[in-house]
Write a structure and sequence with these properties.
With 347 residues, this protein is α/β, with parallel strands linked by helices. It has three domains: 121 residues, HypD, alpha/beta domain 1 (Rossmann fold, 3-Layer(aba) Sandwich); 151 residues, HypD, alpha/beta domain 2 (Rossmann fold, 3-Layer(aba) Sandwich), CATH 3.40.50.11740; 45 residues, no CATH class. Strands 2-1-7-8-9 form a five-stranded parallel β-sheet, with helices on both faces. Helix 1 packs across helix 12 and helix 2 packs parallel to helix 16. The model has no long low-confidence stretch (mean pLDDT 93). Bound molecules: iron/sulfur cluster. The site of iron/sulfur cluster (SF4) has 14 residues, from helix 15.
C-alpha cells in the first residue's frame, strides 16, 4: 500500500465527525465495496448506501409484465441479458414464462439480438433494452442497424435510463455520491459540475480498493469544508469530455422521457425512448402495449434500500423467503444488487 493510499485509509478509519451518508450509484461499486470488505473497515458514523446503480434493480415490475405479455400473448422471441430473466414481475418472471412456452434467448450484447433477428426472419424478435449510459449506445446501434437493413421482425422494448436527474431526485438521501466510473466515461464530468451548482457533491472513482478508499477520504475532507464539491478521482479512465461519439449515437436514436424506477417511482427526464424516426422499431408502439405499473411484492423493501432508508438484512424476507436462488425482489437477482451482495459477503 503506497503512502497516499495509507493516508486515505487512516482518514477513513479515524473519521470521528458528524454522521455521513455516502451513496454509491454503480452496481460494480456496490459489488466491489462488499467484496473488498470496505464496509467493515468504516467507523459507525460513515453510512454507505447502495443507491440505484444496478440497472436490473431499478427496472420496474410493469416492464417485466410487458416483456411477458410480448412473449406469451404476442408470441415474440425475447432477447435479454441473463439477470433480467429472473426478475419477478407481477405474476411471474420471464424464467417462469419460459416454462409456459415463452421463447427467451439469452444475449451478451444488443447486437446479438439484431443478429438473431437477421437469421430468424420467421420470428418476431424483441430486444429488452435496459441499462444506463454505458449500455445504451449498443442498443441504439442495434436499432439503427435494423432500420438500415429494413429488418421488419426486430424491435426493442426500451427502459434505458440516465443518471443525472436521479442524483437530483436522491439529493436528500446522501451527503455525497460516489459517482460511477463506467457511466462517467460516456457522460464526462460537466454533469457533475452542474450538479455541484445545485448543491450536490460527489467524486468519480474507479473500482480498486485504493481508488475507493481515496475517494472516501476526499469526500470526508471536502465535506468538512461545508461547500458543494466535485472531483474526478478516476482521471486515468474518465476524461472530462466523456465520449461525445457515444452520446451522439444515443441522441440520434433516443430522446429523454420520464421514467419509473423500481422502488423509487417516477423521476422526470430520467428515461430514454425511441425517437419518432425509429418508431417502427419501438415494441410498445408496434404491439400496442399498454403502460402498466405492475404489482411488486408489498413485503419487498427494495425501494427503501435503494433510498438508503434500510439495510438488506432489515427486510423481513431477507435470507428466509428471499435468497439469490429464489429472489422476491430485483435487488436479490443481480450480483450487483445490494441484497444479493449483502447475502454473499455479509452473512
Ligand atoms: S431481501 Fe428480497 S424482498 Fe427484501 S428487499 Fe431485498 S430483494 Fe426485496
Amino acid at each position: 500500500m503506497n503512502e497516499q493510499v495509507l493516508k486515505a485509509k487512516q482518514i477513513v478509519e479515524n473519521y470521528d465527525g458528524r454522521p455521513l451518508r455516502i451513496m454509491e450509484v454503480c452496481g460494480t461499486h456496490t459489488h466491489e465495496i462488499f467484496r473488498l470488505g470496505i464496509r467493515q473497515m468504516l467507523p459507525e458514523n460513515i453510512h454507505l448506501i447502495s443507491g440505484p446503480g444496478c440497472p436490473v434493480c431499478v427496472t420496474p415490475v410493469g416492464y417485466i409484465d410487458q416483456a411477458i405479455d410480448l412473449a406469451l400473448n404476442h408470441h415474440c422471441t425475447i432477447c435479454t441479458f441473463g439477470d433480467l430473466i429472473r426478475v419477478p414481475g407481477s405474476d411471474m418472471s420471464l424464467q417462469q414464462a419460459r416454462a409456459k412456452g415463452a421463447k427467451i434467448v439469452m444475449i451478451y450484447s444488443p447486437t446479438d439480438a439484431f443478429t438473431y433477428a437477421q437469421s430468424h426472419l420467421d420470428e418476431d424478435v424483441v430486444l429488452l433494452a435496459v441499462g444506463f449510459e454505458t449500455t445504451t449506445p449498443a442498443s441504439c446501434m442495434a436499432i439503427r442497424d435494423a432500420k438500415k437493413n429494413n429488418l421488419t421482425n426486430f424491435s426493442a422494448l426500451v427502459a434505458n435510463k440516465t443518471m443525472d436527474n436521479a442524483y437530483l431526485a436522491l439529493k436528500d438521501s446522501a451527503d455525497a455520491f460516489l459517482y460511477p466510473g463506467h457511466v462517467s466515461t460516456i457522460t464526462g464530468c460537466q454533469i457533475y459540475r452542474d450538479l455541484c451548482e445545485e448543491g450536490i457533491s460527489g467524486v468519480v472513482t474507479g473500482f480498486t480498493g485504493p481508488e475507493i478508499l481515496t475517494a472516501l477520504a476526499v469526500i470526508i475532507k471536502k465535506l468538512e469544508k461545508g461547500q458543494p464539491f466535485f472531483m474526478n478521482c478516476y482521471p486515468r479512465v474518465v476524461r472530462d469530455e466523456g465520449s461525445p461519439s457515444a452520446r451522439k449515437i444515443i441522441a440520434s436514436v433516443m430522446e429523454p422521457c420520464d421514467s419509473i424506477w423500481r422502488g423509487i417511482g417516477n423521476i422526470p427526464g430520467s428515461g430514454l425512448q425511441i425517437k419518432a424516426a425509429y418508431q417502427d422499431f419501438d415494441a410498445r408502439k408496434k404491439y400496442g402495449l399498454e403502460n402498466t405499473q405492475g404489482h411488486p411484492n408489498p413485503a419487498c423493501r427494495c425501494g427503501d434500500i435503494l433510498r438508503g432508508d434500510c439495510m438488506p438484512n432489515e427486510c423481513p424476507l431477507f435470507g428466509k423467503v428471499c435468497t439469490p436462488e429464489h429472489p422476491v425482489g430485483a435487488c436479490m437477482v443481480s450480483n450487483e444488487g445490494s441484497c444479493s451482495a449483502f447475502y454473499k459477503y455479509m452473512e
